[in-house]
Amino acid sequence: MWLLGVLCCTAGSFFISLGLVLQKYSHLKDRGSGAGSSFYRKPWWILGFSVYIAGQVLNFVAMAWAPQAMLSALGASSLVFLGILGWIILGESMQPLEVCALACVVLGVIMVILAVPEAPGIHNRSVHGVAGNLAEVDFIMAAVGFGAFITASWLSVVLVVPGLTAARGMLWTLMTGVLAGYTFTLWKCVSMLLIGTRHTLVHWQIYIIVAIASCMCVMQVHTLNIALALGSAKAVVPLTFSLGVLIQILNAQVAFEELSSMRRQALFWIGVFLVLVSMACIVQIQLSSEDEEAALEDGDATAALKKGEAEEASMKFGRSQTMGFSGPSPLRHARLGRRHSSYFGIKNDNAAACRGHVYPLPSSGLVVEV
User: How high is the pLDDT of residue 310?
Assistant: First the structure.
């Protein structure tokens, strides 16, 4: 069954990536056409969102069949599909380092898949069995330990360095990673109960688990946004993903004992290391590319602004002509040429367009600045 779970998770990652790319394609298409209606009414966006939901459903199904330690690394395959589909559909370019990092992600995922099936763990698919797994002393102690560490860190930040933004951002990043790891474990339990067990809905325990997992999802979104607001995305995204994966692996052991009898520990951890490092490299490359594009846009905007100011100054100088009340003198007329045939250098049919300032000069003339 674990192979079916791998196939479902891989297909789910593909559909999630395809859905995101189609939604981005809808935004780019609407931006090019200048349409101003709501984006969620666009056909391409609706199609992309539907495909995205289908991918999430497939991932939920995969949780019931594949070991959690394996799924923790398989989630990174969505980055590979995003890079490939973005290149095919959106025409986005990939740097050589990014291609190498994606290849390392694939290699790491393959190593994890080869290492995990030898230790399927203990997955009791009854309601009381799952509740017993979540009530294990190791699982509860690990959760309490993380909660105590986050609380102590929070008190330290509030009392010692209340104004240090970086410390607060790191704290919210830590909270997001912990919530991500435990949320994944709870949804895996729900998937095991709904797909692998009959008459699950008559038990009240399933509703408690769903309620807790849903609340943790909302909290995770909230803490992630605060972390991104306080810290750099280059640090928040890799740390959140890495910490979430490590906690998922920890829960795979304390809740399901998936790592106890694993004989290929070295292969597994090397694969996890490759996935985490490669994912961090991909995020850094993408964010660096965005920073470079933003810098180029700012540079182009600054150059265009300076060019516009220079042209405006040149136009002001060209249109600013000193004339006497009796009209231009022959010498001045010869020097300036016949650029304008009207008095004061402004054509009569454009007189209403003059919105400049009029300055008196010692030579009893006027300078009209348009």
Answer: 62
pLDDT confidence band for 36 (50 / 70 / 90): low
C-beta separation of 206 from 139 below 8 A: no
pLDDT in tens, 282-336: 888 877 776 666 666 666 656 666 666 666 655 554 544 444 334 444 444 444 4
- Among residues 4, 2, 38, 46, the alpha carbon closest in space to that of 22 is found at 46
Q: How far apart are CA 338 and CA 195, in angstroms?
A: 88
Q: What is the rounded distance in angstroms from the CA atom of residue 123 to the CA atom of residue 10?
A: 22
pTM of the model: 0.71
Classify residue 289 by burial, with Cβ atoms within 10 Å: 0-12, 13-18, 19+: middle
Instruction: For residue 18, give both structure tokens.
Output: 């395809």
Comparing C-alpha atoms, which of 47, 42, 43 is closest to residue 15?
47
- In which order are the strands placed within the sheet that holds 322-324? 322-324, 365-369, 357-360
Tell me how far apart the alpha carbons of residues 259 and 118 are, in angstroms, rounded to a whole number. Answer: 9
Query: 196 to each of 56, 61, 124, 327, 333, how far by Cα in Å?
Result: 18, 10, 10, 98, 96
Question: What is the DSSP secondary structure assignment for residue 216, as one 8-state letter?
Answer: H
List 360's β-bridge partners, or say none. Answer: 366
Beta bridge partners of residue 324, listed in sequence order: 365
CA distances from 190 to 13, 79, 186, 311 (A): 20, 26, 6, 67
Q: pLDDT tens, 78-122? A: 888 988 998 898 888 888 888 899 999 999 999 999 888 755 556
Give CA–CA dist 258/216, Å, rounded: 24
Tokens of 214: 């849903």
Count Cβ atoms below 10 Å from residue 329 Cβ, excluding itself.
11
Res 111: pLDDT: 93
Strands (E), the chain: 322-324, 357-360, 365-369
Q: In one letter, which amino acid is 316?
A: K
Return the SS3 of 361: coil
pLDDT for 354:
37
